[in-house]
Protein 1
Amino acid sequence: MNTVDVQLHGGPLDGQTVPVLAEDDDPWTAIISDHGRYPGGRSLYAPDAHGIWRWVRDTRPEEL
C-alpha cells in the first residue's frame, strides 16, 4: 500500500508530519501522545473537506 506524508494541524501534535495510507476509504490516524489531554492516550486527526489533516480529539489510553 502507498503511504503519503501529511502535516497535522491543531491539537497537541500541530505541525508534525506523519505517514498515512493513501488508499484508505476512511482516513484518520490515532497517534500516541503524552502532550494531549490524556498522557499516554492518543490524539486523533482526520482530513477535513479540503484535505487538511485536523485534530479531532484526544482519547484515553484504554479507548482504542
Note: The chain is about 0% helix and 50% strand.
Protein 2
Amino acid sequence: MTPLAPGQQVEIRDAKNPKTIVAAGSITMTSRPPLPVTDIPQSELRAVRRAWVELSVRDERVRTASDAIERLTGGGPRLAVIAGPPGYGKRAAGIKAQWEVSQAE
C-alpha cells in the first residue's frame, strides 16, 4: 500500500467490518456510462430543511450532515461518504449536506 502524500488525510469513524479502498491520481469515466441523476422530491427537501433534528435521543449533537458539509466545502478532495445500516438517516443527511453546500455556493 502506498502511503498518503503530505497533506492528505483519511478519517474513518464507527466502522463495523470496514473495507477501505483509497485511489489517488487521475480517474476518468470515459469507458463507463454517466451516473444516473434522480431528482429529489420537494417533499423530502422540505422535510430536511424544516425538520432536521440536531440532537440524538441521548442529547448528543448529530454530526453526520455537518461532517459531510465540512468535507464538501473544505480543502482537498471534495468527497463525503455516508454509510450505515438501513433506517439511520443516511439519505436525509446527504440531502441536508447537499442543500447546505448548494446554498453556500
Note: The CA atoms of residues 73 and 101 lie 7 Å apart.
